[in-house]
Amino acid sequence: MKYIVAIIRPHKLEDVKKELLKEEVHLMTITEVLGCGRQQGITEVYRGVKEVDNLLRKVKLEIAVNDSFVERTVDAIMRSSREGEIGDGKIFILDLEECIRIRTGERGGEAIG
Ligand SMILES: Nc1ncnc2c1ncn2[C@@H]1O[C@H](COP(=O)(O)OP(=O)(O)OP(=O)(O)O)[C@@H](O)[C@H]1O
Ligand SMILES: [Mg+2]
């Protein structure tokens, strides 16, 4: 199992969700966050707006998946969030040790989706 954490542009969220649904990835946690990339916000220009604060608004998606879903999840996020501009975001893939559905006590792959 893997825990996929993706930081994306906020306005991409609906497109990303749509692409994830196409891949049967429905379970996710979404948080509004502030982030700093390697340009430290200062030189990030997007749609003509130059950001001056070094913390930019981003959206964080967290998705726990079985190994067989990793690539399709990453591909869906990539194709729906990439614009080819600085600040497009980043995807982190972490090993996930365990997952427990509290209601039933199921564990692992059974509990994840
Ligand atoms: N190494 C990191 N650790 C934690 N969060 C990060 C890291 N790199 C990027 N992020 C998060 O992702 C957001 C978007 O990063 P961003 O796309 O600007 O990355 P970048 O490395 O600067 O690449 P680019 O040159 O394409 O802009 C940041 O605002 C931050 O929230
Ligand atoms: Mg950046």
Predict the CATH topology.
Alpha-Beta Plaits
Average predicted local confidence, pLDDT? 92
> Compute the gyration radius: what is it?
16 Å
CATH architecture identity: 2-Layer Sandwich
Order of helices and strands: EHEEEEHEH
User: What proportion strand?
Assistant: 25-35%
Largest sheet: 4 strands, antiparallel
Q: Compute the separation of the termini in Å.
A: 11 Å
Number of DSSP-assigned strands: 6
What is the percent of helical residues? 10-25%
What structural class is derived from the secondary structure elements?
alpha+beta
Strand order of the largest sheet: 2-5-1-6
What best-fitting shape do the alpha-carbon axes yield? Answer: globular
| Multimer state | single chain
**What is the CATH domain class?**
Alpha Beta
- Indicate how many domains the architecture comprises: 1
Tell me which ligands are bound.
adenosine-5'-triphosphate, magnesium ion
- Low-pLDDT stretches are none
Number of helices: 3
